[in-house]
Amino acid sequence: MRKLTVEELCRMDVTAFRAAEKLPLVVVLDNVRSLHNVGSVFRTADAFRLAGVWLCGITACPPSAEIHKTALGAEDSVSWTYCDDTLQAVERLRAEGYIVLAVEQVEGSLKLDTFRLDPSRRYALVMGNEVRGVRQDVVDATDQALEIPQYGTKHSMNVSVTAGIVMWEFARQLRR
Predict the structure, then answer these.
(1) Rounded to whole angstroms, how far apart are CA atoms 83 and 131?
(2) For the chain, which ranges sit under pLDDT 50?
(3) Model pTM?
(4) Residue 98's closest CA among 66, 144, 57?
């Protein structure tokens, strides 16, 4: 096997990305502290051609050298919105017709591997702070909570890893 060159991958440029049809999915970052996590979410959102990323509360916004370090330019291709408060973002997304899902371990959460998407709907995933997770009032305002099944000794994963897993599952189901 031979690794493909960047040219052989035939990736679109930023202009083509912006004009291309997007996956009907946005990721909402609820007070995510690490700029590297923010950059990683941008890069993964670019990989799956998401409709956008919403940055809320203390979550940093581009331009930022630290976000760029992990986003590698995806902060320029992926549409993003800043909102002072995550609860306001959730209310706005619901008013725009999105099904809003908290990715959090809560009573009654649905396991990601059993959740089935309706391809005619638009979705928003709320990802929480690295220490406290998704705020309780935000969880309360969402339509449902999703949880990634875990089998080890730790009770959680890094927010950017979690976002990547959930984005992959949504892209897998919505691109069928």
Answers:
(1) 20
(2) none
(3) 0.96
(4) 144
